[in-house]
Amino acid sequence: MRxxxxxxxxxxxxxLTWANEDDTKTFLVLFKSxxxxxxxxxxxxxxxxxxxxxxxxxxxxSELALLIEIPSCDFxxxxxxxxxxxxxxxxxxxxxxxxxxVFDITESKKTMEVFLEAHENQDNPKRNQKAQ
Length: 132
Hints:
Residues 1-19 form the signal peptide. Keywords: Signal. The structure is a single chain. By secondary structure, the chain is of the alpha+beta class. The chain has a domain at 23-112. The chain has helices at residues 2-19, 33-38, 43-48, 77-81, 95-98, 105-131; strands at residues 25-31, 54-58, 64-70, 84-85, 93-94, 101-104. Strands 2-3-1-6 form a 4-stranded antiparallel β-sheet. A two-stranded antiparallel ribbon has the order 4-5. The longest helix has 27 residues, at 105-131.
């Protein structure tokens, strides 16, 4: 009985630590203020429509930005761009029609890591030759 309890406790512990892995995807959506004005909406209204997810807005001297963190999903930029945004008019429009650009930050980070690793592997033989 004791062995069964220890085994069960160990399996539950491993399962809980495995479930805590960071599977979130982060998207960066850039907007032009002229485009938002033409659709009679603003960044805060769009952010409120993504209230199910963790969001942050940035506005300043450059483009308006919205960061959206979506937990464990198979979303990509195209799927996020197909989300319907309520602008207060009779018809809803797709996010991609309002947004200037939509970036998948998580995928871009993975791609950058692959490029850096390939670059480091390419430089290692050159460094070894110079050292000899």
